[in-house]
Amino acid sequence: TQLLEQSPQFLSIQEGENLTVYCNSSSVFSSLQWYRQEPGEGPVLLVTVVTGGEVKKLKRLTFQFGDARKDSSLHITAAQPGDTGLYLCAGARNYGQNFVFGPGTRLSVLP
Amino acid sequence: ETGVTQTPRHLVMGMTNKKSLKCEQHLGHNAMYWYKQSAKKPLELMFVYSLEERVENNSVPSRFSPECPNSSHLFLHLHTLQPEDSALYLCASSQAYRGIAFFGQGTRLTVV
């Protein structure tokens, strides 16, 4: 049983469409991070959310942290081929350093 | 440029070889990490060095041995690996208790 689950596992959409990916857990996290990873590269940090109910926007990306700090979503508006990659969420418990990663959502945006 | 540099980027080694992976950061961070990323599996934390303390995942085999001579450098020594150890090995750094900020580009390891 994974501590963090992400859905969908795979997503293939056309350029210009909107999408939402989810990160869910039964555990409470003190903070949650989203990363994007391209093939052959390391993950790149997109955002950190720490407050329940928090919403952060990064251009066309909107991140939300659930009120109970157990789940999060990432919404992309008007997806572009450059958004293609593996989207990973990671949670930290008790402000500790044992970050737990989800399995990721692999997004493909077709031109 | 991510601020965290890993070498080599690719490594092929036999099961009887001994090799080392190197990670370097000059971001002033005081915590460094080794992660393993295998196909179809989540990122797995192997070792953490934070504020000069070492924390390890007890499931990591002893054929992996970390070394952190100072806060800017981290090594992963490899010996008598198995084919199932083939994976992308990622180094990361952060300020302690502030979340993981930067990953290196990884070393793609293939054990033959």
Description:
The complex is a heterodimer of chains A (111) and B (112). Helix content of chain A is 0%, strand content 52%. Chain A is mainly beta and 111 residues long. In chain A, strands 2, 4, 5, 9, 10 and 11 form a six-stranded mixed beta sheet that branches. In chain A, strands 1-3-8-7-6 form a five-stranded antiparallel beta sheet, with no helix packed on it. Chain A is globular, with a radius of gyration of 13 Å. The relative contact order of chain A is 0.34. Chain B is mainly β and 112 residues long. In chain B, 0% of the residues lie in helices and 56% in strands. The radius of gyration of chain B is 13 Å and the shape is globular. The mean pLDDT of chain B is 90. At the A-B interface, strand 4, strand 5, strand 9 and strand 10 of A face strand 5, strand 9 and strand 10 of B.
Please identify the structural class of chain B as seen in this structure. mainly beta
Strand percent estimate of chain A:
over 45%
Q: In percent, how helical is the residue content of chain A?
A: under 10%
**Average pLDDT rating of chain A:** 92
Question: Sheet bearing the most strands of chain B, described?
Answer: 7 strands, mixed
* Beta-strand segment tally of chain A: 11
Strand composition percent of chain B: over 45%
Q: Would you identify the regions of chain A where 5 or more consecutive residues have pLDDT less than 50? A: none
- Protein chain pair with the most extensive contact, residues per chain: A-B, 25 and 27 residues
Gross morphology of chain B = globular
Spatial extent as radius of gyration of chain B: 13 Å
- Principal-axis shape of chain A equals globular
Which blocks of ≥5 consecutive residues of chain B have pLDDT under 50? Answer: none
Radius of gyration of chain A: 13 Å
Mean pLDDT across all amino acids of chain B: 90
